[in-house]
Every structure is written in C-alpha cells, then in structure tokens.
Amino acid sequence: MRVNIVGDGVWGTALGKLLVANGHEVSFWNQKGQIDSLDAVVIAIPTQAIRSVIKNYGHNLKKAVIINSAKGIEKSSYKLPFQIVKELLGAEIKYFTLIGPSFAREVDCKMPTLVNLGGRNGKTLEICNLFETDYFRVRPTRSVEALELAGALKNVYAIACGIADGLGFKENTKAKLITIAYEEFQKLALKLNYKIDKRARPGILGDLVLTCSSIESRNFSFGKAIAKYSIKESIEKINSTIEGYNTAFSIAHFSKKSAMPLGKFVFKVIREDNHKKIGSKFADFVKKI
Q1: pLDDT tens digits for range 221-265
Q2: Secondary structure string (H, E, C) spanning 93-136
Q3: Domains and CATH numbers, the chain
Q4: 48, 91, 106, 286: least CB-packed within 10 angstroms?
Q5: What is the DSSP letter of 289?
Q6: Which residues 6+ apart lie within 8 Å of 232 measured at CB?
C-alpha cells in the first residue's frame, strides 16, 4: 500500500519506519502543494495544525483513507481530530485513529508495544496490519471518540502528575492522581455519549498510565518544570509541542458537561502562572480530591 504521512516529526517518522518494515511505500508530505492521497494518509501533526493543513492542502483527500495519530483538542472549537477531519472532508470519510502508549524512541528500539486502532469501517483489520509487527501490536476497537478524548485529556493529567513530581510528591500521590484522572475521563465520556469498548484499554488506560508516570513524556516534564519555573520558561525548556498545555484551554468548556476538578486545577495553574505559590495550592488540592 502507498501511504503519505503528514508530519515528519519523531512520531510520524517512527510510523513511517513501521510501514516500510512491512513492505509499504511511504512518502512524507513536504508542506508544499496539495497532499497526495495515495492509498492512505496518516495525520502526524499537532491537533492545532490539522484544520489549517487540511483546509489549505487537503483538497484531494475526500476519497482517501485517513489515519489520525494526533492527540489533542482544538482550542478555537473544542473539537477532537475526528470532528475536525469530518467537518472538512465529510462525514462519510474513511477515518481511523491510532492511539496508545507508544513513545517513538522505544518503538524505534523495537520495544514491545500495544496500541489501539479505532474505526468502524470494513478496512479496520487491513489498516491494523499496515502497522503491526511482532513487537508493535495493534488492537482494533470501535471506540473512536472515546480514544481521542482520552488521548487528549491524558496530556492534561500528565501535567498534574509532573507538578506532583516536581514538588516532591511520591508514587502514592501520582497513583491517586491517575485514578482520579481515569474516573474524570469516564464520567465525561459518559456525558458525551462516547462508548468505551473494553478493547480500547491500551489507548485509554495504558496511555494514561504511561504519559502520567514517565519523564519521557513532554507533558509530564512540562508539569515538573512549572512547579519551579514560569510557563514561558517551562515551554522553552521542553522546546517541543506540549499538547496538554493547548488542551487545558478546553477544560472550562468540557467541565460544563461533567465535573473535572483535576483538569480545572491544571488549567488554573497555567492561567495564573505563579510557580511560587503552586506548592501550597497543590498540597491543599490533592488532599481534597
């Protein structure tokens, strides 16, 4: 199969290597001219860029198979990737989302990994086989919406766990935060009528645990940084896209549908940008939730 990858960052490149290893023809969109649909197109750019890229360069994609790998919520519309893509390309687009606990560096090192492919199309197993190897396993699920919601929110929750780590709180506290985060996500998904298939556990629970517990996570590292530095300084230290920072601006919108005390706390910390007071505020908050 011929696959065009939109995004040549570390994750897009890692996916490209998987595809090549499986004998597929891979090309990367060079940010010039229209995106060639080929047989399938992988979206591997930040969520905040999806709309402008498809609107300006995706005129040939209405009949393509779209495989999303972005995790986040668009700040201006509060929409997930599947909503942005379907708004621009039509509700009938063949759409899949590839989400799960998968640091690109470890995929490159062929570390055993389990992710989800969300889709409701007859091509689901075929798309799984595009990426699957003996070390990179892809579990199909119908929970497209829940996967993308979880993939976005876990980045916000990882910031909370990073803050805890930066302030000297240990594993018990981070385990509490992860538990609260998972419950918070489940309640919101229920309110949004996003069905959670048991087969979606890698992309929902697994991704949450990984992102919230590893310094390899940019969002965790960002949270750890803002426990000691300003938001601007922390962003400069990470020097890469921090999806949780962008997604946090959607928390106020979603908290109207379901209580999100942990998400709201992270957004408040970002909005106030006062690392000198974060210690006492976090200590009081984490005892109450």
Answers
A1: 999 999 999 999 999 999 999 999 999 999 999 999 999 999 999
A2: CEEEEEECCCCHHHHHCCCCEEEEEECCCCCHHHHHHHHCCCCE
A3: 2-141 (3.40.50.720), 145-288 (1.10.1040.10)
A4: 91
A5: -
A6: none
